[in-house]
Every structure is written in C-alpha cells, then in structure tokens.
Design brief:
Subcellular location: Membrane
Distance between the termini: 49 Å
CATH class: Mainly Alpha
Domain Peptidase S54 rhomboid: 67-213
Structural class: mainly alpha
Shape: globular
Radius of gyration: 18 Å
Order of helices and strands: HHHHHHHHEEHHH
Largest sheet: 2 strands, antiparallel
Family: Belongs to the peptidase S54 family.
CATH topology: Rhomboid-like fold
CATH superfamily: Rhomboid-like
Number of domains: 1
Transmembrane segments: 7-23, 29-48, 76-95, 107-125, 137-156, 162-185, 197-218
Number of strands: 2
InterPro entries: Peptidase_S54_rhomboid_dom (IPR022764), Rhomboid-like_sf (IPR035952), Rhomboid_protease_S54 (IPR050925)
C-alpha cells in the first residue's frame, strides 16, 4: 500500500499543525498522548513505504497462530491510508490529553501508555477468536485503543459535547449509546472492512479498566449522568 509523497507531507503537516495550535502554553510538549501519536505516524509511514513491513505488522490470524503474538500490538500502529490515520490520531489527541493524567500514578507515571496498549490488545481478542482459522482475515488501525480513550472520557464527562463529523454537537453519553448500537448492528450485518467489534470491545475495556483503576469514577459518572445541568 503506497501513497504519494505529497500526501505524506500533507498528513504530517495537518497533524503537527493541529497539535501545536491547540496545545496550551503550559502543557508539556512530549506528553504520553503526543508520544503515541508520533510513534504511530512514523510506523504507519514506514509501513506504507515498505510492503514487507506492512505485511509483518498487520493482524493476520495464521501468522499469530504460528507464534507472531506481537501482531496483537503492532496492528494498532499502522493504518490503511492517510485519512484513517488522521481521524484516529486527531481523536486520540483531543481526548487523550483530557484523560491521561488520571493514569499517571500507575506504572511509574506511564499508566496511560499501558492503558492504551492493553486496549489495542484486548479489543482484538474477540476478533481473533472469531477469525482464528481464517486465512483471508486482516485487521489494522488504532481504533481499539482510541475507542478506549474516548469511552474513558465519556465516563468522566458524560454530558460534554462531542462534535460528530467535527460539526454536529452531541452529548457524549448519547454518542456512546449510538456508537455501541451502530457497532453491534454493523458487526452483525457484515460486508464492511471496518472492525466494528474492535471498536466496541475497545470502548468496553476503556470503561472497565478505568473503573477498576479508579473506583470513584463510577459514582462520579452516575452523579454527573443524573445532573446534566451542573
């Protein structure tokens, strides 16, 4: 899979511009969210340039069955094309910054990195079980990890506005309900190259892991949910 050099430049420029323009002056430049984005962009670009690298990193059940378990992680750092990459990384950037501080007291300050990587792994497990014997199944992208971040944010701020297609404002909790319903429906319908199951399980991991790590988040969520005007 290849894209033109012009698209490479545009993709990187858009991502970097968004990060620098929206970054508060007192916000650390190399926070964990930004580090994940940088690594993901670099790995995706390298994979686009080198088909062998792309094929080695993508999630492919027969290869996993032969012992290449690292694909549970590596598939989350490559993307189908520039728009796939930009959509995931923009989403990760805006919501990751908002929640990563919640995990800083874990793993010597790198709890958010562990949370994100585990989300990518856990989100893929149901798909692997379903397609374990399929030689035609492939999956890639950070959507499992990004969904975990997004749903953890919704747990913290259920009535915060999320802008659908960057235009339509919708309360986060309503977005979550619609997102889950759409993912279940689309997964059952099939006929799509999108791994809706990974989206759904990534979101579930984000909610469950956050509650386990910070149990007080659950009463906070319930109180916020019942008090939309406050």
């Amino acid at each position: 899979m290849t894209i033109t050099n012009t698209t490479y430049v545009i993709s990187i420029a858009l991502l970097i511009t968004a990060i620098y323009q929206t970054q508060p002056k007192d916000y650390p430049l190399f926070n964990q969210t930004t580090l994940i984005i940088i690594i993901t962009v670099i790995v995706s670009l390298l994979a686009w340039q080198n088909k062998a690298v792309f094929n080695r990193l993508i999630f492919y059940p027969p290869a996993v069955n032969n012992g290449q378990w690292d694909r549970f992680v590596t598939h989350g750092f490559i993307h189908a094309d520039s728009m796939h990459l930009l959509f995931n990384m923009f989403t990760l950037y805006f919501f990751g910054r908002a929640i990563e501080g919640l995990y800083q007291k874990f793993l010597f300050g790198y709890g958010f990195l562990l949370f994100y990587v585990l989300a990518i792994i856990v989100a893929m497990i149901p798909s692997y079980i379903k397609h374990k014997q399929s030689a035609s199944y492939l999956s890639l992208g950070a959507s499992g990890g990004v969904s975990a971040v997004l749903f953890a944010f919704i747990l913290l701020a259920p009535w915060e506005k999320i802008y659908l297609f960057a235009i339509i404002p919708i309360p986060a909790i309503l977005f979550a309900v619609a997102y889950v319903a759409y993912s279940i429906y689309s997964d059952k319908r099939g006929g799509s190259n999108i791994n809706h199951m990974a989206h759904m399980w990534g979101g579930a991991f984000g909610v469950i892991a956050t509650i386990i790590l910070e149990p007080q988040v659950l009463p906070h969520f319930l109180n916020a949910l019942l008090s939309p005007g406050f």
